[in-house]
TrEMBL record:
Alphabetical list of PROSITE patterns matching this protein: HIS_ACID_PHOSPHAT_1
Cellular localization per UniProt: Cell membrane
GO MF entry, a single one: inositol phosphate phosphatase activity
Name this polypeptide is given: Multiple inositol polyphosphate phosphatase 1
Catalytic activity: (2R)-2,3-bisphosphoglycerate + H2O = (2R)-2-phosphoglycerate + phosphate; 1D-myo-inositol 1,2,4,5,6-pentakisphosphate + H2O = 1D-myo-inositol 1,2,5,6-tetrakisphosphate + phosphate; 1D-myo-inositol hexakisphosphate + H2O = 1D-myo-inositol 1,2,4,5,6-pentakisphosphate + phosphate; 1D-myo-inositol 1,2,5,6-tetrakisphosphate + H2O = 1D-myo-inositol 1,2,6-trisphosphate + phosphate
Family stated for the protein in its record: Belongs to the histidine acid phosphatase family. MINPP1 subfamily.
Disulfide cysteine pairs (residue numbers): C36-C359, C226-C239
Signal keyword on record: yes
EC number: 3.1.3.62, 3.1.3.80
Protein's organism: Mytilus galloprovincialis
Length: 417
């Protein structure tokens, strides 16, 4: 079964954990016949694999009770009667044990790719995370992995909570009104949820169960049980109720939701991310303007741990994964091959890295971007490598940030606190 479960996809379902990573693969860059040396790096991670939130846990338990009361269902799928929700409410939203593997492996891969910039000293890295335990623990495992790979035994730095930079969506009035509080945001989602493609999936699942009273939401709940059990425990009998075509339909449904809440449907989705993007530009500007900074100096590094709601708006701000056709309820077939695909761009532990290099022979600085460790074409210049001046000019709106003005916040009310 193809493991496509939108943002509940495991990182190492998409990447080969046994892949051989060359030392210093991205520490230097060959550009226009010149060797360019890393001088600045900003990396944003989504937290690792977690348990579902309380809403989903309650829905899962209620669904099992409903199905277990039907003798025909139990005769076909005895496991449903015996199934006990493996996601206790006390663990809602917390990290699973899978995250240790994810983050340790990612740290190992990261340390190898940028080895000479990290070797012997991790104290020059600015680490930040949100107030949520799942981001803080993702950081701890990642930092542990860096130390293990590089054998630095560095004293742990003073990482900090930075909700202003990483949970901007919590404090943006315009976003809360126009997106989260707007019934129109869910129009396309609801239309697809009750449309022909999802109806076919529902009928197929009902036929398998011999139970003809399932709602569309309950089928999505089964999908979430399948995704999370398969990801966290490597096995789920609930997955037997779907085939690959079913998964693709539900995956598109969930992509529609993300497209309208975090993607290109509303400009405020990306505009509100400027606390993150403006900080990145500020740090890079400092590096570029520091006349005393030479190649033998330690690069300026920032590593942050946020959420799906952090990284997807930042992707959108940079114009990444912008398809010709918007995701709508009526164009599933057109968008089967799309770039705004949550399972691929936003799985657990997804990451976006923006690297600043200085080239030999002149004072030119260039930018390269990586999504989930792979270089990507930068929409602003149409290449995988951009001159920093051109990069900043194209994304000038991301470099300046009047958050309260953008979000139409009350000037007399603190935006964060």
């Amino acid at each position: 079964m193809k493991p496509l479960f939108n943002t509940k996809t495991l990182y190492f379902w998409l990447k080969d954990p046994a892949e051989s990573i060359p030392d210093n693969q991205f520490n230097t860059l060959n550009h226009n016949g010149q060797t360019c040396q890393l001088e600045g790096l900003n990396v944003l991670f989504r937290h690792g694999a977690r348990y579902p939130t309380i809403k989903w846990i309650k829905w899962m338990t209620a669904l099992q009770i409903k199905l277990a009361s039907d003798s025909k269902v139990i005769s076909r799928y005895p496991f449903i009667k015996q199934w006990s929700n493996p996601f206790p409410e006390t663990k809602e939203g917390t990290l699973s044990r899978v995250v240790e593997y994810e983050m340790l492996r990612l740290a190992n891969r990261f340390a190898r790719r940028f080895k000479s910039s990290l070797q012997g000293n991790l104290n020059h890295i600015n680490f930040s995370y949100t107030h949520k335990n799942r981001t803080q623990n993702s950081y701890k495992y990642f930092y542990e992995g860096l130390n293990e790979t590089l054998q630095t035994n560095t004293q742990e730095p003073n990482a900090k909570v930075d909700d202003e930079k990483l949970r901007f969506y919590d404090n943006c009035h315009k976003y809360n009104v126009e997106v989260e509080g707007n019934d129109n945001t869910t129009t396309e989602y609801e239309a697809f949820l009750h449309g022909k493609e999802m109806t076919i999936v529902i009928r197929k699942v009902e036929t398998k169960l011999g139970f003809y009273n399932l709602t569309a939401v309950e089928v999505v709940v089964i999908n979430q049980i399948c995704a999370l059990e398969l990801g966290l425990f490597n096995k789920s009998y609930w997955c037997r109720l779907f085939d690959v075509d079913d998964l693709l339909v539900i995956d598109y449904l969930l992509n529609i939701e993300d497209y309208y809440e975090q993607g290109y449907a509303y400009p405020i989705n990306w505009k509100q991310s400027c606390p993150f993007t403006s900080y990145m530009f500020k740090r890079f500007d400092q590096t570029v303007s520091a006349a005393s900074l030479q190649h033998n100096k330690v690069p300026q590094l920032d590593i942050s741990f946020g959420h799906s709601e952090t990284i997807v708006p930042v992707y959108t701000a940079f114009g990444l994964f912008h398809d010709a056709e918007p995701l709508r309820a009526d164009n599933f077939d057109v968008n089967k091959v799309r770039t705004f695909h949550g399972a691929i761009i936003g799985p657990f532990s997804a990451n976006l890295a923006v690297a600043l290099y200085k080239c030999d022979g002149n004072s030119d600085h260039v930018i390269q971007m990586f999504v989930n460790e792979d270089p990507v074409i930068i929409p602003g210049c149409g290449n995988t490598v951009c001159g920093y001046g051109d990069f900043k000019n194209f994304y000038s709106k991301l470099a300046d940030c009047n958050f309260d003005q953008i979000c139409q916040n009350d000037p007399h009310k603190p935006a964060f606190g």
